[in-house]
Amino acid sequence: MSLRKTLTALNRPSSPPDSSISAVKTESLETSGPSSSKITFRPRKIRKVSPATVTASPLSSKSTVDAALRHLRISDELLGAVISAHSTTPPVFESTSTPFLSLARSILYQQLATKAAKCIYDRFVSLFRGGEPAVLPESVTSISAVDLREIGVSGRKASYLHDLAGKYEAGVLSDEMILGMSDEELVERLTSVKGIGVWTVHMFMMFSLHRPDVLPVGDLGVRKGVRDLYGLKNLPGPLQMEQLCEKWRPYRSVGSWYMWRLIESNKTSKTKLSK
């Protein structure tokens, strides 16, 4: 199957590709903020990619989202209550960007407020004749770090973009390979790119590839949601997250989405009570 046909199957026209990610207002453990707890991930050996390993229906399919909601309501009564409380705002997992463009955008958005990040991203895209479709590995490597710094991209992020594009040009990565990788292989391969950590890969899998069973164990918002959902005293670590959310399989991406909604609603309730 051609890349164009594969992307068409995965995606539907939607709002700007980054809107789903920016809307959840999460905090990444790749960004050392004052409220983050340090979590370490055990490195894994990179294995050869096996073709045709991805068989689950993407979350860009309404039928898949509906099936996920039915499963989560039945398997977890507490989560079912959260789903019912947000019945007017169903989960959204849509993007029409290619994997390369999505990853490049993820790098540019790191550690920046959404408004500032979008401004820099728009300047970045304006460097390419033809807009987003022209943002290709070979065109990114042709832009110097100096030119990138002139539009507000830090020197470090410029090196990240060049490393990503370089791996594409060297054949280490390609959009076709990424679309055929399993979730585990994606984490292994993409974290070999400078500036891309586990959290970024998890967000990429959820909102760009629409993978249904991703549990971002390092996301502060999801961890807070799980803590509040189950009445825990402390924030759960990766292992406890895996154990508590096992019942959500094979739709942990959707369960995680509702953890962000839970945190948002809790913040709203506290604000109202304080007035």
TrEMBL record:
It comes from Raphanus sativus. GO terms for cellular component: nucleus; protein-DNA complex. Keywords: DNA damage, DNA repair. Residues 8-39 have a biased composition (Polar residues). Belongs to the alkylbase DNA glycosidase AlkA family. Residues 108-264 form the HhH-GPD domain. It comes from the Eukaryota. This is DNA-3-methyladenine glycosylase 1. GO terms for biological process: base-excision repair, AP site formation; DNA alkylation repair. GO terms for molecular function: alkylated DNA binding; DNA-3-methyladenine glycosylase activity; DNA-7-methylguanine glycosylase activity. Residues 1-40 are annotated as: Disordered.
